[in-house]
Structures are given as C-alpha cells and as structure tokens.
Design goal:
The complex is a heterodimer.
Chain A: H1 3-24, H2 39-59, H3 63-86, E1 96-99, E2 102-105, H4 106-122, H5 132-151, H6 155-159, H7 164-170, H8 175-193, H9 206-227, H10 231-253, H11 260-281, H12 284-310, H13 313-322, H14 334-344, H15 357-360, H16 372-404, H17 409-433, H18 451-469, H19 471-475
Antiparallel strand pairs in A: 1-2
Chain B: H1 9-34, H2 37-46, E1 47-52, E2 59-60, E3 66-78, H3 88-95, H4 99-110, E4 124-130, H5 132-141, E5 148-158, H6 164-167, E6 170-172, H7 175-180, E7 189-191, H8 194-198, H9 200-204, E8 208-214, E9 220-223, E10 239-241, H10 245-254, E11 260-266, E12 271-278, H11 291-300, H12 309-312, H13 322-332, E13 346-349, E14 352-355, H14 365-371, H15 374-385, H16 394-407, H17 429-435, H18 459-470, E15 474-476, E16 481-484, E17 496-498, H19 503-519, E18 533-539, E19 546-553, E20 560-566, H20 576-589, H21 594-605
Parallel strand pairs in B: 2-10
Antiparallel strand pairs in B: 1-8, 2-3, 3-4, 3-5, 6-7, 8-9, 10-16, 11-12, 11-20, 13-14, 15-17, 18-19, 19-20
Helix pairs in contact in B: 10-20, 13-15, 14-19
The chains are: A mainly alpha, B alpha+beta.
Amino acid sequence: MDWVTILLYIALMAFGWISICGASYDFSQGGNFFSFDARSGMQIIWIGTSILLGTIILMLNDRIYDTFSYVIYAILLVLLFITPFLARDIKGSHSWIKIGPFSLQSAEFAKFATALAVAKFMSSYGYNIARWRDFAMTLALIFVPMLLIIAQRETGSALVYFAFFLMLYREGMPGSILFAGISAVVYFVVGVRYAADPLWFTPTSIGEFSVMLLIMAFTLGMIRVYCGKSKILTHLIYWTAGINLTALAFAFYVIPFDIVWVQLPLCIGLGLYLIYISVTARVKKYFYIAMFSLGSLAFFYSVDFVLNNVLEAHQQIRIKVLLGLEDDPTGAGYNVNQAKIAIGSGGLKGKGFLNGTQTKLKYVPEQDTDFIFCTVGEEEGFVGSATVLLLFLTLILRLIHLAERQPYRFGRVYGYCVLSVFLFHLFINVGMVLGLTPVIGIPLPFFSYGGSSLWGFTILLFIFLRIDAARNLAQR
Amino acid sequence: MGKYDFENRKFVIGGAAVFIVIVFLIRLFTLQLMSDDYKKNADSNAFLKRIKYPSRGIITDRNGKLLVYNQPAYDIMVVMREQIGVDTADLCKSLGITPEFYIKRMEEIKDRRRNPGYSSYTQQLFMSQLSAEEFSMFREKLFRFPGFYIQKRAIRQYQHPYAAHVLGDVGEVSPSDIEKDDYYQSGDYIGKLGIERYYEEQLRGEKGIEILLRDAHGRIQGNYMNGKFDKDPIPGKDLTLGLDLKLQALGERLMQGKLGSIVAIEPSTGEILCMISSPTYDPHLMVGRLRGKNHQTLSKDLMKPLLNRAIMGVYPPGSTFKPTQALTFLQEGILTPQTAFPCPHGFHYRGLKVGCHGHASPINLVPALGTSCNAYFCWGLFYMFGNRTKYQNVQEAMTRWKDYMVSMGFGYKLGVDLPGEKRGLIPNAQFYDKAYRGSWNGLTVISISIGQGEVNATPLQIANLAATIANRGYYYVPHVVKSIKGGTLDTLYSRKHYTMVDQKYYNYIVAGMRKAVEGGTCRAANSPNYEVCGKTGTAQNRGHDHSAFMGFAPMNNPKIAIAVYVENGGWGADYGVPLGALMMEQYIMGKLSPASEKKAEEFQNRRINYGNESR
C-alpha cells in the first residue's frame, strides 16, 4: 500500500473542497458549507463516497482488474454509446445520464476502463509495439472510446485520450511520432499566432518565417540525431544558414521583400535533396527525414487553409483568442481574461479564505468546476497555487516511481496511463486558467466539483494502488 | 526486463511534468507578483463604490443674508433590462421630450465607448436635473414606466441675481480636474469660477463611500465586510462673505449699461464689501441643464460679461495713482508738504509738456492733491529720478520707486481669494532699459507719476490703495470671505501689510483727498453726514477717457474705501465721483436719501455707447 499517494490524494481533495467552499460561497446569503443545498456540501458526499469507493477497490482481489478488463471496457463502450440517446442536452453536450437525483458522466469512467483494456492488451503474450498490427490495435482501443465521446459533444474529455501517447512513448513507441505531434502543435501555435506580424518593415510574416526556420532546424537536427555527423550535414547547415542570412540581409539592406519566397523553395529543395541522397546513397533515414520536412510544410499550409476557410467563425475566434490574436474581453476571451484577473489579484498570499471577490461574484465562469484553480489563485495567492502545483507534480512523479517498480507490464502500462491522464488534465486545465493553453473544458483532478469526475479519478488511481499493493504478492 | 526496455524514457516523461509545472509557476509568478494591474482590475470589477455626496456649504453675505444654497434636483435613471415594454410615446410626452431625443439618448447609454460603465442591470442616467415642478409631474406617472427611477441630487441655487462674478458657479469636472485631484470622479461637480472655485475644498466637504459588492451581472450583493469600510460624507463648510448684498445690488444697478467695476473694502479688516464688474450676468443662468448653452452664449459676448473686471481688468489708474507718488516723494525726502511747484497749465521742461487744468500756481502738496495738479507730481518724479545724491543713477531711483509702489499693493497680485487675479503692471528699471535701450531718464517716464504710461492696475488694487490711505499706512489683503463656519481663514487675510511710508505722511494725503471733496475735483462726493475723502482719476487711453474715483469715508475711523472705474466714462467727476458717493452713502447710511435715490436712478439709466468692438 502506497501511503504517500493516498496522503497526496487526501490532501488534494481537502484543498479542493476548501476551494469549492470559496467558489460557491455567496456574499449576500452567507452559507453553510455543510448544507447539501450548497455545492461544498454535496462535494462532501462525493468525497466520502470516493473514499468508500477507494477502500472497496483496495479490498477487492487485484486479479479482478486484470481478468475483467475487457469486460469492463466493453460495458463502458456500450454505456458511452447509449449515453447520447439517454442524455438531455446540457449546453450542447449529451453526456450526462440522469439516475435519480444524480447525473453521471459516462466519459469520466471510460478512462480507467480504456486504461485497463490497453494495459491488458499490451501485456498480452508476444505483444510488440513495433509491430504494425499490435500498434494499430492499441490505437483502436484508445480511439474507439474517444470517438464515442466526441459523439457526445464532449470534445474536451475526448482529447484526454491523447494522453495515452505518453504511455505509448514509455512503452517503446518511436519518439519521432511524439516529436512529430509536438512539432505540429508548435507550427500551429507559432504560425497562427504571429501570422499577421511583419518582420521589421519587410512584408514577411513572422509566423511563416519562424515556422520555416523551425522546419529547417528540425530537419537538420534530425539528420544529426539519426544519421550522425557527416560532411553532407555540415554542407547543408552552411548552405541553409547562408541562404537564410543572405535573404535576410538583402531584405534588410536592399529591397524589403517577403523572405518566405526564399525560404519556401529552400525548404522544398532541402526535402528533395534528401530524397535524392536517400535514393543514390540508399539510406532510408534520409527519406523519412525528407518526409518529415515536406510533411511539415504540407501540414502548416493546410492548417492555415483549414483555419481560414474551413472552420466556422466562432471556432476561429476561440483559437485566435487563445493565441492572443483577438482581444474581445466580453466575448470568447472573457473567461480567460477574468480568470487571469482573479488569479493575478491574489498576489503573494492571496486574499484569504472566502475573501476572493472575482470568483465569488461570478466573474469567473465555471468557477467550481473547470476554473476552480482561479479560486486557489485568488484566495490562497502564489503560495497556495504553487503548493497545489507542487502537490500534483509530486503525485505524478510518485506515480512514475510506482509504475516503474511494477514487475509486470500490465501494472506499468496501467500506471503510466493513470499518470499521463493526470498530467494531461493538469496541463490543459491549469494552462487554460493561466491563459497558456486552449479553453478546453476538462476538470482539475480531485479539485473540480463533481461526483462523476471525482469517482472516475478515484477509481483510476485506486485500481493502480491496488495493483501496486499486490506487486510483491504477484512476484511470489 | 530485456534490453528493449525503454526505462530511461521515464526521465523524459518526468522531465516533461517538471517542465510544465515550472512554466506554470513562472506564469503564476508574473501574474500574481509582477503586476498590479490585475488587482486593480479585480477591484473595479467587483467593488461598486457608491459615493455618498456631501451637501455643499451654503454662502451668506456679511449680514447673514442667504446668497447660495442647495436645491434638490432630480435625475431620471433607467435600468435597461427592466424598461422593456414601456410606452415610449407616453414617456416622451410626460417628460416633454421628442421621440428622437429618446432614441438618441437610449443609444448613447448603450454605447460602451461613451458610457464605459454601462450595464443593463444597473441604473443609468437618462435625463439630468429635472426641476421640482417637472419632477412632481413625472412622479405621478412613474408607475407606468417600469425600469425608470428617480435619483435625487443637490444642485446649486442662487437667492439673488447679484454678485455672479464673486460667487462663481459649479459645473461638472473636466478631465484635467480629475487628473489634478483624484478626489474627483467623472460626473462630480466642482467650483468653476469665483469663490466656488477658490474655496472648493472647504465648500465641497468630503465624500462618503459605501463599498458594495457587485456580481458579474452588475447586481448588488450587499455591503463589503458589512460596511466596515464605509464612510459617511462630511458636509461642506458654510461661508460668510464680507459682501453687503444691498451695496452689491446698488453697485450693479448703477453700473448698468457701462463697462467697468466698483470695488469697496472695509479698511479695518480688508473685507470686500462689494465687487461689481459690469456687464454682469444672472448667476441663475449657470444652473441646470442649460448651463452649457448659457455659458457659451456669455463667453461669445463681445462685452465679455464673464470677465471679472474688478480683478482681471487692468487699467491705467490715472490720477487716483497720485497719492502713491506724493507718499513716495515725502518718505524719500524729495519734497516736503510745503514744497511748491509752478504749474503754468502743465509741466513744461525741455520741450516736454504734460497738460494741466487751470488752478492757482505755484502749488504745494495738499491743494495739488485737491485739484489733481499734474505738474506737481511730474516735478516730484523729475526731482526724484534726477537726484544723484540719493541715487547713483536713474535705475536705482526707479528701483526704489518701484519698491514703494509694490509695498502699496501694486504690480503684484494682492492675493484676493478669487481665481484669476491679474497683477497689473509697475515697470522696473530693466523694463525701461529694454524699452529705451538703457537711454532714459525721469523725463522719459514722467507719465507714470500721474498714473499713465506703462502703469496699470486693477480696480481692486486701486480700492486697496484707498483702504491703505484710510488706514494711514497699512492694508489687509482684500478678501471676499469673511469667515468659514468650522474653519479658519488664511492668516494672509488677518495680517497687516505696512507700506514703506510712515503714517505721518499719510495725514497730508488724507488732507489733500479731503480738500478734493471739500473744494476740489470731488465736490459732488461731499456729504453733510460724514466726511468723505476722495481722489478722481481721468485716465487717458486710445478711446474716450476712463472715469475713475478712489475714496473713503468717514475720514476718521473709515468704514468704507472704494474704487470706481468706468470705462470711457470721461472725467473722473462724470461717473466715478457720483457713483462712489452713492455707494458710500448706501453703505454708511444703510440706505439712499430720496434725492440720492433719484440720482441713482438717473445713473442706472445712463448708457455709454461702446460700439461693436470686442472688449
């Protein structure tokens, strides 16, 4: 039994409860935090039942999860599938099933089921992630629930499934896939964010210019990593750097022109040249790298096209607000702006428990669920927020430690699924509140109000703790 | 664990987690600790600071007669969210506005650029300053217009149509006012002119504040910390003026149809008894919704009714300036009361000629003042500036002369408690060095000895001269406000300012001014009831001469010192003397005799034609 994790779990929930008290407190009516009319009171029920749930999980036989993982997965898939038919429309999403006085969100429970199924599959005999069929099957296990959740119009919850790629990376998925994914995000953010800013007085867009530079740098970097030092590499570095600098100098001193006109052919030329070497020298790696650089170009320009011509106006605005391109405090950026005001007004030590005005007076939306971190920032200040972040970091690092000590792949994969999900939630949720990541409505584990998410996270975590507790037993 | 184990990747994943948390911590640090903006934003977000306005101090005259008070006015407020479905035609009719005005106003309210504090949940100003009658009519129908509310506020009101220049007015603060003093917020009222402006801090009191909590919809959620930080307003202090309402009223009557000013001072205190600047205007024009329009009309008027000529008009003092010369020459020992100078119809010297009217010659000090002999004072200045035993050069003499003038209240602002006072002009040696490139002497500047040439003074300074002579050598800085209820007047106004001339020399001046009344230029000012001292002035200028008078009464134990200045009024005796006489009679006797009343009426109806030239 890993008491460290359990203590972290309790601490986060307690901190979360205090924040919910603060967030749902009403200045004019005062409030009894233990009344079940208040969200803080309800959260006590959720916390209590979660602890009960955790205890039960810890008492059950650890073999259950291994044995019934596919069954659990199948049940959850059915549940996910029927949810949209049963659920009422709540703010456009069809994800809540009403059971008596309570509403349950099936998507919250699909995470542990998926994690179990993936762990089970990946720990099966003869599984090799490098084998195409095994890898594709794994992806299918991940993407099916994801698509079902998208069908419920819960895009945020669906995106969480990308967290599994972190686990896949740990289990041996080529780092280049992760790298490609991250580069795609970087191209997107940089390219769109600075699309309209000119480079000095030239008609060059800083966004395009930087993405071109990034692509060339990544390409050359990959040659260095995958093919080692070579004369070709040195030549390529000199040539690209030389051409870029010449173009820059020319635009700066002689005629201001769009430097991308030089960079784009240079990029394409680089790709084609790599293909040429791969063919003549019969080195496959060069070909892959060429694919990366040409693919990057294709991706960047298609994103540009999609953003401007395919996405609807409100989606465009959401993305642009996130990237700081639109300033519309009462429109799409309102939430993020208010969140920043709430947190920024907290200062070092915060305004004190129940003294936060921004969160209590409803300036910050969804303050007890998705934007709960605002209350922490406003009432507990930098000290409190940093404490929460460090608690989460400790939890994640602790879980890495636990996952790594599992004797079987099943436990390790499951453990990495758990910590990846937590990390993803932390990254997106807090990043959103701080205005660093897109506004994607997903809860902060153990903090956000809500029974489904708390139960979901508890089950996710405690199954792992149960597996971990049985590790020595299993070894014997 | 085989060799294809990717265990090292745990460091990448752990490192990513650490990296993310570090980025978040940096972000938190910059948001929470590096900038104050978010905190300010949060406060204006959540705290609705509702100002509790104090009542502005009221203003009375020296006898306790009410001059300025506060009157309730009514603003019509609207809550957009609640006013849906109101019969706008009925509303317009009830308020006496056109539907176009209604539509325009509604759009203005909703325009966030013009009305940044707009919220559809809170009261917005729809129409301001309804009178009591308009209000009572509207109130009966108010129930028909949901979402419309009435908010009471106090506006300034004037009991009498007099003393507009002194009283001044209040108006909405300008952006620069707000910048200068963060006490003010947009929409506040501030004294714009006169004592309303000068005593703004005393009159305004101190705003109270009620800190309310406002939610994201603009709804009020109660007092912050149960009103722990709320503050009650402190009412403004009441002012009692030195002004005598009846005297002021008479002065304004007499000055009708003339440009100029009358200023009277109580010599023993420096309190200003009346301050008339003509043309004047009715202070009621500066109240209410029409203030802006009226103000504009007045400011465009060629006769400049908004200008307070008593302190902003700078005129050549003419012969009213002569006593200052006599005092200087006596004190400097240039002449004695017995020194006599010839006056063959003027001052003649090396081709320079300053004319004078016919009187006995040679003449000494007292009769020279009584007949206002130009030559006498020209000779005095000529001997002073030419005296090389006392002064090394003309510059030194000039500097000495200037110091005397300044000690008598000329050349600098006196420091009256009204905004906009002008300092007039007393030239100094540098001034002439520059004008004549160093080559000048007493003859060059001879006209300053008779209050002409470069010398300029405000009517207030001339009246102050009268007070100084009445006091035989000192003055109190003239001031309009006699006392502040619950406050103290600036000590500037309770301090004697001595001139550089000894008291004994003043007696000759008083004698000379008395002689002028008894048998000189000021005969018309003579009164059987009290002894008047006076000095006329006829100031030459580009147009018709200005008519001036300076005097005080009674001669012993003076109660009033006065200066009258009528632009283009001709001889000092034409307007200055009779107006001054009537004013003194009014103040000392408390009323005018029937004969004087008739005379007053005559002068009230006399008009001077000023043409269409801008003044």
